[in-house]
Specification:
Elements (H helix, E strand, L loop, with lengths): L9 H6 L5 E5 H4 E4 L17 E4 L1 H5 L5 E2 L4 E3 L1 H5 L11 E6 L1 E8 L4 E2 L5 E4 L4 H18 L10 H5 L2 E5 L2 H44 L17 E4 L9 E2 L5 E2 L5 E4 L4 E2 L1 E3 L7 E4 L4 H6 L6 E4 L1 E2 L8 E4 L12 E4 L11 H9 L1 H10 L1 E3 L2 E3 L2 H6 L1 E4 L2 H39 L9 H5 L2
Parallel strand pairs: 3-8, 4-7, 16-20
Antiparallel strand pairs: 1-10, 2-9, 3-5, 6-7, 11-24, 12-21, 13-17, 14-17, 15-16, 18-20, 18-21, 19-23, 22-23
Helix pairs in contact: 5-7, 7-12
Length: about 450
């Protein structure tokens, strides 16, 4: 597909050229180089390699701005055998194939495969270029074209126009401001990961202390503590698990709200995210039978991903009249048996590997999708502690989740701040002046 030259001028057309800024192409700012892959059949190109060799996966998995380690390394002979180039420290790695726009700054000399068009800064501050590429990525993606996957060539990248400050001080100052936001965002994300690690550790210790170090709750490695029991789900449920309904749906209203399976994650059913919602037009009889209520527990009954099939989530806030889809099962825990579980504890235990591994043992493949049925659900053995211990675990995990949720909101605010600052600073809408300029008459 041929792209009109106008797309390459989108930055200038949209933002213009600020006072004392200059219009330039990316080729004016940096040297653009590609990468390559040594032959996999030549052991000497790989064995004992010490040169970091990046693939797009190394960059997309890297949450930080800097990259210093890669999954694989190559030897000097491997580097010499292919189109890969040893990029110096400070180079900006930019993915240009399939995933366009993932990027990182090389903290050490590194080579890449052919999925990159990397930038060696010349007449521009390297960190400034890193952030500028964020603003240019939507334009660059429009230049990507391929029959199998999107790809933008080095030649096309070189022709993308932008405007940059003539003063190197302003470039560096803008980069410092954005780096400060990035640093704060990285710290927040790290705090979220630490909270999740603590949550996992607490759950692991809770169940291992009771069952021993085992992969399956129905195969405990020690005698259960006083008051604990292993109970089949069939004895814990008030009624038969029930599949939802999935008439033809639209991504936009009007209609009865329902949701995609993507809403069931991390023990919750996220219906505040509008991207998870769908809308159906059907008779009133169907919505009444399948309407959800706060506290309902839904289980994913089918998915191609083993990590997701069988996972449970609890309903919190939801749009009025919302119904649950056919790919989920609703389970209702009983309140009267001698051995009973609260819905909150039930979700925590069900999603833990000790129970989920039992689900996977029973799941059957149908056209590439793993599925579980009602019989599977009812045969799962649940570890049931005394109600007081259930409540204590739920309270501790709820506190960690609340802290994690608060941190996620902070991260979202920081991401929005970064976006706003980029729009203002990288286009010249808001200027950063040095002391000499401020003092000048």
């Amino acid at each position: 597909m041929r792209i009109s030259l106008g797309a390459r001028h989108d930055f200038l057309r949209r933002y213009g050229i600020a006072d004392r800024w200059r219009p330039q192409t990316l080729a004016d700012l940096a040297r653009v180089v590609g990468g390559g892959t040594p032959s996999r059949g030549e052991d000497r190109f790989w064995r004992g390699g010490t040169i970091p060799w990046a693939t797009p996966s190394d960059v997309t998995a890297n949450q930080a701005k800097l990259i210093s380690k890669t999954a694989e390394c190559i030897t000097d002979a491997g580097l010499a055998s292919c189109a890969a180039v040893l990029l110096p420290r400070g180079s900006v790695l930019f993915t240009s194939r399939a995933t366009i726009g993932a990027k990182a700054i090389a903290e050490v000399p590194v080579a890449t495969n052919q999925g990159f068009a990397s930038f060696l800064p010349d007449s521009v501050d390297g960190e400034y270029l890193y952030y500028l590429l964020d603003l240019l990525t939507p334009i660059i993606k429009r230049l990507g074209a391929g029959t199998t996957f999107d790809e933008v060539s080095k030649r096309e990248l070189r022709t993308v126009w932008c405007a940059v400050p003539s003063d190197s001080f302003e470039q560096a100052a803008i980069a410092r401001i954005l780096d400060a936001v990035d640093t704060a965002l990285e710290h927040t994300r790290s705090a979220v990961e630490r909270a999740r690690t603590v949550k996992y550790a607490i759950l692991q210790q809770f169940f291992y202390d009771a069952l021993g170090e085992t992969a399956y709750a129905d195969r405990p490695q020690r005698q259960l503590p006083t008051g604990w029991a292993l109970v089949p789900m069939e004895r814990l449920l008030r009624e038969e698990p029930k599949n939802g309904v999935s008439p033809k749906a639209s991504s936009q209203p009007p209609g009865t709200p329902t949701f995609s399976i993507a809403a069931i994650r991390d023990g919750r059913v996220d219906l505040l995210n509008k991207d998870n919602l769908k809308y159906i037009r059907t008779s009133e009889r169907i919505p009444q039978r399948f309407q959800i209520e706060r506290g309902d527990v839904l289980i994913v009954r089918g998915n191609a991903n083993p990590d997701l099939v069988g996972k449970a989530g609890m309903i919190g806030e939801f749009p009025a009249g919302c119904i649950y889809p056919d790919i989920a099962k609703r389970v209702v825990f009983a309140t009267k048996p001698a051995s009973k579980v609260s819905p909150e504890y039930g979700v925590l235990a069900w999603n833990h590997a000790l129970v989920h591994n039992q689900v996977l043992r029973r799941a059957k493949t149908s056209q590439g999708t793993l599925k579980i049925n009602n019989r599977d659900v009812k045969q799962i053995m649940m570890p049931v502690p005394p109600e007081k211990e259930q409540a204590q675990l739920v309270q501790v995990i709820a506190s960690i989740d609340a802290a994690s949720d608060a941190l996620v909101k902070v991260a979202l605010a920081q991401e929005q701040l970064k976006k706003s600052l980029m729009d203002d600073l990288l286009t010249g809408r808001v200027r950063v002046r040095n002391d000499a300029e401020v003092a000048a008459p």
